[in-house]
Amino acid sequence: MRSLDTKSGLLVAPLLHNSSCTKVHNHITAGGVVQAAFILILSTGIFLANLLVILVVNSRRYSKYIHQQVSHIL
Fold first, then answer.
1. Mind listing the pLDDT tens digit for each residue in 30-48?
2. Cα–Cα distance, 31 to 7 (Å, whole number)
3. Three-state secondary structure along 1-59?
4. C-alpha closest to that of 36 among 44, 48, 26
5. Is 45 in a helix, a strand, or coil?
6. Sign, CA torsion 16/22/26/30
7. What's the mean pLDDT in 10-25?
8. How many alpha carbons lie under 13 Å from residue 54 in its C-beta half-sphere?
9. What is the rounded CA–CA span in Å between residue 32 and residue 40?
10. Are 62 and 56 a contacting pair, CB within 8 Å?
11. Residue-wise over 11-32: b if at least 16 C-beta within 10 A, else e?
Protein backbone atom coordinates (compact mmCIF):
# COMPACT_ATOMS: atom_id res chain seq x y z
CA MET A 1 0.00 0.00 0.00
CA ARG A 2 1.35 3.37 -0.94
CA SER A 3 1.35 6.09 1.70
CA LEU A 4 0.01 9.51 0.82
CA ASP A 5 2.32 12.48 1.14
CA THR A 6 0.48 14.77 3.55
CA LYS A 7 1.85 18.15 4.46
CA SER A 8 0.79 19.54 7.77
CA GLY A 9 0.79 23.23 6.92
CA LEU A 10 -1.74 25.98 7.20
CA LEU A 11 -3.03 27.64 4.09
CA VAL A 12 -2.11 31.29 4.25
CA ALA A 13 -3.68 33.84 1.96
CA PRO A 14 -1.26 35.99 -0.01
CA LEU A 15 -0.68 39.50 1.23
CA LEU A 16 -2.66 42.07 -0.68
CA HIS A 17 -1.78 45.72 -0.84
CA ASN A 18 -4.89 47.87 -0.83
CA SER A 19 -4.01 51.36 -1.98
CA SER A 20 -7.19 52.82 -0.52
CA CYS A 21 -6.03 51.95 2.99
CA THR A 22 -2.60 53.53 2.71
CA LYS A 23 -3.79 57.13 2.61
CA VAL A 24 -5.53 58.59 5.62
CA HIS A 25 -8.62 60.62 4.67
CA ASN A 26 -9.77 62.03 7.99
CA HIS A 27 -10.35 65.60 6.85
CA ILE A 28 -13.65 66.99 5.57
CA THR A 29 -13.52 68.81 2.26
CA ALA A 30 -16.00 71.17 0.61
CA GLY A 31 -16.50 68.66 -2.20
CA GLY A 32 -17.37 65.94 0.31
CA VAL A 33 -19.90 68.19 2.02
CA VAL A 34 -21.49 69.13 -1.32
CA GLN A 35 -21.63 65.48 -2.36
CA ALA A 36 -23.21 64.44 0.96
CA ALA A 37 -25.77 67.26 0.75
CA PHE A 38 -26.65 66.29 -2.84
CA ILE A 39 -27.15 62.65 -1.88
CA LEU A 40 -29.25 63.67 1.14
CA ILE A 41 -31.48 65.96 -0.94
CA LEU A 42 -31.85 63.34 -3.67
CA SER A 43 -32.72 60.60 -1.16
CA THR A 44 -35.24 62.83 0.59
CA GLY A 45 -36.86 63.72 -2.74
CA ILE A 46 -37.17 60.07 -3.74
CA PHE A 47 -38.64 59.20 -0.34
CA LEU A 48 -41.20 62.01 -0.55
CA ALA A 49 -42.16 61.08 -4.13
CA ASN A 50 -42.76 57.48 -3.08
CA LEU A 51 -44.79 58.64 -0.08
CA LEU A 52 -46.90 60.85 -2.36
CA VAL A 53 -47.61 57.92 -4.70
CA ILE A 54 -48.64 55.73 -1.76
CA LEU A 55 -50.94 58.43 -0.40
CA VAL A 56 -52.58 59.03 -3.79
CA VAL A 57 -53.08 55.32 -4.45
CA ASN A 58 -54.73 54.87 -1.05
CA SER A 59 -56.89 58.01 -1.12
CA ARG A 60 -60.63 57.73 -1.74
CA ARG A 61 -60.63 60.71 -4.10
CA TYR A 62 -58.54 58.95 -6.75
CA SER A 63 -59.63 55.37 -6.11
CA LYS A 64 -62.23 55.49 -8.91
CA TYR A 65 -59.45 56.17 -11.45
CA ILE A 66 -57.20 53.37 -10.22
CA HIS A 67 -58.49 49.95 -11.19
CA GLN A 68 -57.49 46.63 -9.72
CA GLN A 69 -54.62 45.13 -11.69
CA VAL A 70 -54.51 41.49 -12.67
CA SER A 71 -51.52 39.71 -11.21
CA HIS A 72 -50.02 36.72 -12.96
CA ILE A 73 -47.86 34.19 -11.19
CA LEU A 74 -45.20 33.07 -13.62
1. 999 999 999 999 999 999 9
2. 54
3. CCCCCCCCCCCCCCCCCCHHHCCCCCCCCHHHHHHHHHHHHHHHHHHHHHHHHHHHHHC
4. 44
5. helix
6. negative
7. 67
8. 6
9. 12
10. yes
11. eeeeeeeeeeeeeeeeeeeeee
pLDDT digits (tens, 9 = 90+) for 6-16: 566 777 777 76
Distance CA 47, CA 34 (A): 20
62 backbone dihedrals φ, ψ, rounded to 5° = -105, 5
Question: What span, in angstroms and rounded, lies between the C-alpha atoms of 35 and 27?
Answer: 15
Maximum CA pair distance of the chain?
86
42: helix, coil or strand? helix
Question: What letter represents residue 42's amino acid?
Answer: L
φ/ψ (deg, to 5) at 44: -65, -40
pTM over 0.70: no
